[in-house]
Amino acid sequence: MPQAANLKRTFSLLLDSTVKLDFLLPNGIILPLELDSDLSLYEAKDELWLMAAKQPLFRVLQPKEHYIFSGINSETADTEEFYDQSLRLRELPLLLPYLLVTEAARDSTLLEENMQNSAISNCTGISHDDIVRASELNPEVKWTRVRFHRLANMHRKLLQDSGPSGLAQYLTATAQRAVSRSLQVMLDQMGALTVSAWILDSKDQTNESKVVVELGIGATVQDALTRLLELQTELADINYKRRSTCSQLTMRSDWNCVKPPDVSAYLLKICCSQAYLFDMSAPLVSFEYVQQCLEEGRHPCLSPVLRKDVCENLVRCLGISSSTSIEEKSYRNGTLSGPRGLFRMRDKWKSETDGPSTRKRDDVLRDCSPYKQLEKLAQTPHDQIEQDALSGKDLGELGPEPVSSLWQLGYLCVEVRSAKFLAEAAYLSATQSTPSTPVLASPAAASLLAAAGSYVVRVGLFHGSQTLIESKTTMQMPSTHLTWNKALNFRIRLADVPPTARLCVALIRLDEGSRSGNTTEYPVGWANLNFFNYLGIMRSGEVTLRLWPASLLQSTDERFSRLHPAGTVLENPNPDFVLQIRIHSPVKNPIRRPTLQSYIDAYSLSATTVTGSLTKSERLAQTSHTPVISAGFINHVFDTDDLEDVYDSLLDNRGLDGSSANDDPTHNINRSSNVSNDDPCYNEPALRELVTRDPLYELSEQEKTELWQGRFFCLKQLPEALPFLTQSVCWHCRVNLMEFYDLLRQWPRPLSVPVALQLLGAMGLNASASIESAAMFSSTTGNGQRGGASGVADAYVRELAVDSLYHITDSELADYLLQLVQALKAEAYLDNTLSRFILFRALRNPLQIGLQFFWLLRSEIHLPDMRLKFGLLLEAFCHGSGPLLTFLARQVTALKRLETISARVKEYGNEDEQRAQFRKEISRAEARRDLQWLPSPMCLSQRLGKLVVSKCDVKRSKKRPLWLVWTNPDRLAIHHLSQYQLIFKHGDDLRQDILTLQLLRVMDRIWKNEGMDMCLVPYGCLATGPETGLIQAVRDAKTVMAIQRERLRAALQIDNTQLFKWLTRYVRKSPSGSSTLTNHDLGVPYDRLIQNFTRSCAGYCVATFVLGIRDRHPDNIMVDTIGRLFHIDFGHILDNRKKKFGITRERVPFVLTKDFITVIAHGNADVVLGAPVTDTGGGGSRDIHLQKFAQLCAGAYMLLRKHANILLTLLAMMLPSGLPELTSVCDLEHVRKTLAVEMDDSQALAYFHSKFNEAYYGAWTTKIDWFGHWMNT
């Protein structure tokens, strides 16, 4: 093992000496060579060929250009071909010091495919061979891969057909968003829209002219472009007259004098970026950039550019040259940027760009008809997918033999056979059905069998996280004989098993205490199995379960019951234990689950009869309503006789096997009341009050009954009650299920976004296992709530929720993408509507959705239970994103380089040595190649230029983050944004920061849409892997600590005026002043600066209070030069406070020090609060500014409380993420408390006022903490 560790380190980016490698030539000769590790593969091949010429059989070799190198990847243990010949030997991720010389594919199609697969593997972090192996062994993986690739191929074809303008729009179109209420108020007051523009008359910077134009508030891009081109023509005429004495004139000047330019040949560009305004008919104020400028008090800065220049610039960014052959480009120069197909696409775009356009294209690519067809494919219903899979439609296979009806079968029976311990995880490597993952055999696993004790197996049937029936446990078996052969009979009919049920199995070791005599349970492993496979066929026969380790159990309940229903249904590729079970099937034919239409048809059949004393049919009709049945439906599984037999038995109140249904606990259908479709709802007030509850509210049994009785009222009047109604459904009773599915068919759609999100990830968290008694376990537990994946498990409900998200804009979807990715973990099958929806939207809009989607998946690809699911989505996204793959490959390479440099820097203890080593590393040629001239991972429209080594630094934080500075290569960067600054962190989990910043962004949207702009600064943050990521450095900002350090009295927390004095430096001066601000050349008006500070301080006071953000000190509170205060570093949320020597340091609900109040009071350091603030308007300070601040805080708090459901929903959906401070529903109780969800408005306002007073009067404790922080730094 030590040798393997050294070997892995030897072949890494850290090597900077010589390297010994064995080269295996195609002629059978093995040549050991010692080479300089700085040599590229192309140079190494030259050295190799010189030595090979002296060896036998050299003549049988072909020219060296026909060969490439391959080796064993140290991460995946698979053979990897290295197509990029510019890679240094030090950069090869080799497991062993061998390189195989293999012949490159001569067939152009095969070569293209191999190169693309290599690029995709590099981007996704999962080997192509692993994916292929998994698809060969697991039919569901094969089916899902076919479905995803069909979507990706359609999108790739659409990109190829879109032409150069379509590609430019795809990769450079700027984002749009609906105008908020607060911005609309500002626009109404403005009267005119002022835009700054740069007119570029030629490539000479001396011909750049800045103009300022005033446009109407509703001016479109077309209007602005027309006006700017008119000014450009006027300037050209002026320049022509000035140069009229010259003997020769440029062709461009002559042309400008003849006629004004064609508006259709131009685009508006956002200055200093690679983003363009493509939608000519859209109002300028609909673009996020323009909105941000107006909210910050800046003029939007735009520039007219030729469409042709945009396309040519994009091709240069892709690094593709049509004049260079593929072989020369990829093998000699070694700058291969992407799959070979991109070269052909580039040639096509080049030819179309050079000549005039011969066809009309849609201005908005994403609204064109091919995208509508792509969307239709992504929205394929669940039942249609099953039907296609069952028939083998896409796989070219024959479907299974005729299926039997599930409704004709008896009870569920599972036989537990045996368990086996695998001494080596690699024992099953030849038969594993999932890719290789970092999961290793537990060191303690080998000692489990040797330990004293016996073993049992526990089996349960679940629907999501809800228990359907009491779980069963086998008898004890000694560790020397893990064979049970025990049949576990469950009192639930197969006909009552819901479509998305899953079997949950756990292997448990029992240890009897020698003294107490109590038996203690130790979980060994667990596995989950969908009761119906992806074809809709019931699992039956022998099943081998590869158990996951018990360490993946997340919540208290799961550790208590040893079952993990919220866990994955995929197999563990490297298990310590395997378990054999057998699911009994009473028939030989496959058993298919009923489709949604089958349930509706069965309910329709029951609705055609009436109940009463006359007939069974008559009695049934009075408990139901008559639905509308679509004509022409053919039931492929159940015929009419089957349905009639089912309902004969139901009306007799008897089971299909002749037993009484009343004897079966699963047939408790007391919620089926005699309330018909037309009956009045007598509990309307209770229902209306119930739907106002937060999504974490736990329904009582009485409330569930009331909901079910009022289901028709909810259908017509309260469609937002659907999430609660799903909790009142008896999922283990097919009678209730039939009626519920019929209601679902009629439910008004689309659902609102909060309701759809609740269904996907925030309902059922408090669903108690009412059937299973906790008394069966001997150990004691707390009242911890269930964690893990959440949401309604039913596939048809989830399909309705996803369909309701198709209408939302990309900007709105981007706000919730973090949670939707977590909701993927709750999906029962690899191919599902949510996966296809997110994949479709990510492919359609890479700037707002695609890039974020890629990194959200990429950052969790190391999780063994999610690796395959996320890997399939990443592969399809990379496959269908076309030229975007080039950018993604560059970003992944750059981040790997930064991770390596960070590890090298941390080897040094002295700060000066770290800084020197860091600058030395980024000055290397290979580092400059990887880190320069690439699109920023934070935003594709920001192109990072050269590294400014002198400004790059290592920060003093514990994890030694790297401060990186690039030049902005844009022509106008010198005027606005000359540099880009990012922080790379290695060793910190940034996902909690990402969640907090996203919630701040959502709060900002809520406030703005309600008419309040709180001037928040939710800066960018991106997790790129386990404990690695990037943070956006906010420009022109300083920490409060850095500001206070300028004066000793302020650092000692004695002088409270230093912050105010620092801010007033940036108040607008006269044009002759010496201000050198980058945001505002002439500074900021005094009133606006104080207003920005006051609003932002109020916003963060409320936000940090609601979210329980702790560890607030002057080094993680910052202020920028336009007056906005903002918080950074969110390592402690949900009221998790830091302690020192067992004492809690923070004793106030939020930070409101005298420094802040002095600024709010316009520099009055003597202002005091006076009497406590009350909700009746009494008390408070006599200072009018402080009074307004208190009112602003209260108003912002009440607006958040109004939207408490969406905030709690977003937090609840993050439970599967595994964040250390968000593992169970109990962790969310703090937010429920701070939002006062159980109080009315007056009580909630009084509650907040009490917290405001507590923060103000306790500010002295904060100052003491800050003084201690200054002493420690």
Automatic annotation (TrEMBL):
Gene Ontology terms for molecular function: 1-phosphatidylinositol-3-kinase activity; 1-phosphatidylinositol-4-phosphate 3-kinase activity; ATP binding
SMART domains hit by this protein: PI3K_p85B, PI3Ka, PI3Kc
Residues covered by the PI3K-ABD domain: 15-105
Alphabetical list of InterPro entries matching this protein: ARM-type_fold (IPR016024), C2_domain_sf (IPR035892), Kinase-like_dom_sf (IPR011009), PI3/4_kinase (IPR015433), PI3/4_kinase_cat_dom (IPR000403), PI3/4_kinase_cat_sf (IPR036940), PI3/4_kinase_CS (IPR018936), PI3K-type_C2_dom (IPR002420)
Polar residues bias locations: 659-677
GO biological process, one term: cell migration
All residue ranges annotated as the PIK helical domain in the record: 673-880
Pfam families: PI3_PI4_kinase, PI3K_C2, PI3K_p85B, PI3K_rbd, PI3Ka
UniProt keyword terms in alphabetical order: ATP-binding, Kinase, Nucleotide-binding, Transferase
Domain PI3K-RBD: 190-306
This protein's name: Phosphoinositide 3-kinase family, accessory domain protein
Gene source species: Opisthorchis viverrini (Southeast Asian liver fluke)
